[in-house]
Specification:
The protein is built from 1 helix and no strands. With 72 residues, it is an all-alpha fold. It is elongated.
Length: 72
């Protein structure tokens, strides 16, 4: 009899966890557009920064390569 009670309790817990999972998934889906928009904004800003400072980045890379050759 105790085994049946435990089984029923476990099934109820599983149902509650399933409902919580559905609620969390709904929250995640609701937040996804904002996250995607933020990601796109960050990517755009990084691309602008790279374009603006690419010559500096190239120069830094040249210096790093020279130093690597010198100390190998």
């Amino acid at each position: 009899m105790q085994a049946i009670k435990n089984f029923i309790s476990d099934v109820k817990k599983l149902g509650q966890e399933g409902k919580q999972l559905q609620a969390n998934l709904a929250k995640l889906q609701k937040a996804l557009p904002a996250v995607t928009e933020y990601q796109q904004e960050v990517t755009t800003l990084i691309d602008k920064w790279k374009f603006k400072d690419q010559h500096r980045l190239d120069r830094i890379q040249e210096i790093v390569e020279k130093l690597n050759k010198r100390f190998k």
